Amino acid sequence: LRAEALARSRGFSEDEVRAHRESFRGADPDDTGSVGPKKVARLLARLFPRSTSDIEEHRRAKALFDEAVSGSRGTMGFPEFLLLMRLVSDDHERDRLSEELFSVGSTDFSRPEVRDFRALFRGGLSAPEGDVMTLGDFVSMVARIMPVISIIMETELKQLLREQSEATSDEGAALGFGAFLRAMQKLQRENWHGINDAAADITSAQAGAELGKDETSTTASTAASGTWTSSKDEDHDTNLP
Fold it and tell me: For 80-93, what is each residue's pLDDT tens digit?
């Protein structure tokens, strides 16, 4: 019975199944028991933001959808929806692990630093289920370290995000974790508008607040800022090219 229940839930917890059921009901407001093609398209665009501008990403999303509905002649009922969520979750997890391994090799960050940046990345997502950081997410995340107070600063962040995501417009620009890690390394190396100093100030403030307490854990932003301060004394230009 437990094995059958696990199969029906596709490995999700009871809370996760309830959350997915609510999402399904949101896509099926008339309670017909199935989701129509247009709403399925919108759902896939939300789960795979780059699929609207990238042919390969579109094919990838469609392949997962086709697999999910292969036993129901193309109809998306809740069982198929739940299977799709499992396929998407597994797909994103494979990507995450692969990209993390690649990022450790392609940047100067150690594995612990990469884990800290992963926490920072996840904490900055407006749609965690998609596992990609939009332009708005990226600007907001940087603003947690230092104020983004000018149009020039925001324009430079937009340019950096486009470069790392290889997008041709702001609308299609989104960062997976590996691209996010490379973007953060670029900000650190160039001490973008004094971001290393701002991160050091956060570290000092945290250290003062934690004085006399057990400091076995820190917030993700503090851990990440520690990696920035390790190279803050190097001479770099303060503006992105």
Answer: 889 998 998 888 78
Are the C-beta atoms of residues 77 and 31 closer than 8 Å to each other? no
Q: Is the pLDDT of residue 186 over 50?
A: yes
Q: What pTM was estimated for this model as a whole?
A: 0.53
Nearest to 181 by CA among 238, 236, 101, 74: 101
DSSP string, the chain: -HHHHHHHHTT--HHHHHHHHHHHHHH-TT--SSB-HHHHHHHHHHHSGGGGT-HHHHHHHHHHHHHHTTTTTT-B-HHHHHHHHHHHHHHHHHHHHHHHHHHHHHSS--HHHHHHHHHHHHHT-SSGGG--EEHHHHHHHHHHHS---SHHHHHHHHHHHHHHHT-SSTTT-EE-HHHHHHHHHHHHHTTGGGHHHHHHHHHHHHHHHTTTS--S---HHHHHHHHHHTTTTS---SS--
The pLDDT of 4-30, averaged and rounded, is 81
- The residues with which 35 forms a beta bridge, in sequence order, are 76
